[in-house]
Amino acid sequence: MLTELLSPAKDKETAIAAIDCGADAVYIGAPSFGARKNAANSVEDIKEVVNYAHKFWAKVFVTMNTILNDKEIEEAVLLAKELERIGVDALIIQDLGLLEKLNTNLPLHMSTQCDNYLPQKVEFFNNLGITRVVLARELSLKQIEQIHKENPNLELEAFVHGALCVSMSGQCYLSQQIGRRSANRGECAQPCRKLYSIETTDGKVLKQNIHALCLKDFNASNLVNKMAEAGVYSFKIEGRLKDINYVKNITAYYRQKLGRGISSGKSIYPFAPNPEKSFNRGFTEYFLEERNECYNFESPKSRGEYLGKITEIGNNWIKIKTNKKLHPQDGIYYEGEGFAINKIEEDKIYPNKHINVKTGDKLYRNFDPEFEKAVSQAVKRQIGVNIEINDNITITDEDGVTITKSLPYGEKANNPGKIKETFIKQFNKTGEGDFYISDIKITTELPFLPVSNINKLRRELFEELMAKRIEVYNSNIKETQKPLKYAEYFLKEIDYRANIHNKYAKAFYEKCGAKVLEPSLETQEPKRQITLMRCKHCIKYALGMCKSPENLILRDAYNNIYPLKFDCKNCEMSVLSS
Predict the structure, then answer these.
(1) Of 469, 416, 463, nearest in space to 444 by CA
(2) Which of the chain's termini has less CB crowding within 10 Å, N or C?
(3) Coil, helix or strand for 372?
(4) Integer Cα distance of 255 and 261 in angstroms
C-alpha cells in the first residue's frame, strides 16, 4: 500500500529541500493564522513551493490552524481563496468557524489541534465530509485501527517523528494561563519545558527542580509498517520550527524506511540519514504499543547520539569507550550540560572548558560538524524516463506520462554508429534537470545533427514532458473537497475546551446539535478551577507511585502551584489551575 510522507517547512527553502529529499507532501505556514506564529510565509513564497512540488506530483498543505476571532475569520476566508488560486493542495485548520464560512474546493484537513483522540470526534469530522483528520499523538495502534475500521474512506494522518506536546493538542492552556500566550493562537511559550518541583499537598518535596512535564521526542520508525496496516495513510514529521538540515535528514531517513511513496522521482543523498544526529531529547514510541518511559526529566536540550561511558578522567582530559569516530568541535552532552571537543590526541579527549563529570557518566554527541557539512550539500530529486527513437522520439516517464515528437530532419550521417553514440551521450546529460534517463532504445538510422541541436532537442522534449506532467496532475491527481454538510455532534453540551473563539464556530456547533456553554478560555476565563492540560504522560507512573493515594502538585520557579488530578482508570493525568 502506497503511503504519504509529509514533511514540515518553516520557509520556502526548507520546503524545497524536503521535496528534494523525497517528501510526498510538505506543510507550511500561511502568512497568518498558523499554529507556529514564527513560521509564517508569504503567498508568493508558497506559490514557488507549489510550482516546484507539483513537478514531482508532491503536494503542498498550508496551515491555518489557530482559533480565530470574528474579524480574523473574514480575513482567513479571503486568504483561503488566494491560496486556492495559487494551487495549494489542502488547508490544515482547527477553527470550525471556517467550516461555517469557507466556500472552497480545497481539501480540508482537521488539525491535531482539534483533539482528535476520541473515535466519536473523528467520526464526526468524517460525517461532515472532511477529507482528512490528523490524529492525536497519544493514540495506540489498536485505537488507530478501530478508527480506520469505522471510517474506512477517511484519510488518516499520524505523527511519526519529532517533538511531543505533553498535553493533548488543542487542550493545553498552561501558556495562556501563565503569560496570556495561547497555544491555540500560535503563541505557545512552552511551559512544559520549564523546571518544576513535584510535591505532595501536605508539603513533602518528592523531586525538586526537574523538567517534570518534558517528554522525549517521538520516533516510530520501527513501527511504520504496523502503522500503515492499522490505517495510517500519511506519516507526518513534526518540526515547522526546525532548521533545514534537520528536515533533510529526517525526511531522507523516513523515505528510506517507507520505500516508494505517492509522488514521483528518486533522491540521491550525499549523506547517510540518521535521526540520532539531529536534534532530539532521546526517543520514545509513546503509546503506539504500550506505555513506556516517554519522559525526560533531565533536560529539554538536544541529547543527540549515544557515544559511550567515561572510562578515565585526567587533569584536563577524559577517555570514553565508544565505537564512534570523534572530531574536534563535536558538541557533547552529559546530564543536561555540554561542551565542545577542543582536540583529540591518541584516545584522550580535551574539552573546551572545565567539566564536572565522573567515571561511568554517559556521553552523547548532539552536534557533529562532519555530518552537518554532508547534510548541507544539495540533494537532487529526478524522475525516471524511457526514450524510444524510431521515426519519432517518444518519451515516457515513470508515471506513464508520454510525449511524442517527430525526429528532426538532417543529412544522412556518414558514421551512423558515431551519431547514435552522440545522441545517447547528449540525452544522458540531464545534469541538474528534473529527469534522468532509465533507458534509450534507438531502432532507426539517425540523421546527422550538431551537438548543439541535439542538446536543444533534449531541452525542448523535457520542457514539453514537464508541462504535460503538470497538466495531468491538475486534471487527474489534484484532489478537491467534497461538499460539507452538518452532522450531529457527539456531545450535547460543550465548554471552553471546544475552543470556540468566534460567532461562526458557535453557530456551527449549534447547527450540529451542541449547546455552547461558554466561549474559549482566550475569550473569557471561567471563574472556577479548570483543566489546563490533559496528558497521557503521568507523573505518578514516572515516579513509581501508581498505587499511592497521595495528592500531588507542581510548583514552578515563581512559586505558582498547579494541582494534579489522576484518572487511573484511563491512565491519564490533568494539570489544574490553582
Answers:
(1) 416
(2) N
(3) helix
(4) 8
